[in-house]
Specification:
Low-confidence stretches: 321-333
Order of helices and strands: HHEEHEEEEEEEEEHEEHEHEHHH
Number of helices: 9
Number of strands: 15
Distance between the termini: 27 Å
Largest sheet: 7 strands, mixed
Mean pLDDT: 79
Amino acid sequence: MTLFLKTIKINKIYNIFLIIQMIIFILFAKGETYEIIEQKNINEYVQFENNMYYVSGCFDELHSAKKIMGYSDNVQKKYNIGVGYLLKDNADIDKETVELIYLNDIMSKISYKLDSGTWLNDYNRSGVLLGYYWKGKYNIGDDIKVKIQGKVVTCIVQGFLQKNAMLNRLTTAGEQMDYQLMLEEISDKTIITNNELIVDNIANSQSIIAAVVSGKYANVKEAFPNNEIISFDKIKDNSIKQMNNKLSSSGVYSLMFMLLLINSFILICIVAYKRNLEMYKIYYTLGMRKVKIFCLAIINMFFNCGIALGSIGLIEIIFIKDSNSEFHLTPYFQTNMFIILFMILGVLILYSLYIILMLRKLKTE
């Protein structure tokens, strides 16, 4: 134990530099990997039916719910297509005011991953999806009273949204539209429904400028000749390309950063070489076997890795606690072990070679 502490004391400056490098590398690699996994999660988050399109510029920025519904009904009848929209208003549940989002038939055909339960459907118009906040306060199948504009509507809990759930925000489209541009995060208290008893009581002015349209492309183009139209298949392809681009750039950056770390590690070893060699000569002269010296050096490196990992764990706990986000916790958990084990293995291999070279030097002197 005394020799171990002495070894740490002699190499304290080099150990500090090495620990800082390991912390920086792991945080960098985890950040790059996290972005890729987050993009992958988003790509798997949305499901849609065939022949669905995103059309921008369908509505003025502010308009009433009745105007949106009337306009959509006219377009559907005239061009034999379906027009999807969402309507927002405030509602009361258990004396709490929350955001309520109504999805019409076409809009509800775009489904999103839930924490539990099933997505909205045509044959159960009394269903409601509750935000993650309500999980534990209600169960699937429970009746829930929703009060909107003074009218109380009884709904059935059909499922719970994921924490930090996202929803199509019906904004401008374009050829580069992908899921990250299309989706926005909604409150964990939000409730979503397709209950037609609720839609008649929505009074808020709406702020949507796009619509989801279902049908043949020729009919959609005829209905919206001057609007930007992009298929959901194209949006999905753009999202996959975005993920692949991130993967390529992340791989290059991670490789460059890893090479920089290796170079710095080698430089630290070279600078500390003479001091360590003198120390190991003393241990060897005092009768310590080379195997023991090797183990002592490796234990010292494990100690450095432990300090680095402890620091990273503390940083993550602080940031995860502040963000209060389970959605973000999952990709971190998925990437932690691989990145940490890869880093530790690489450092131990390099350091083992470094120690072996010094021990061979002892043999010749």
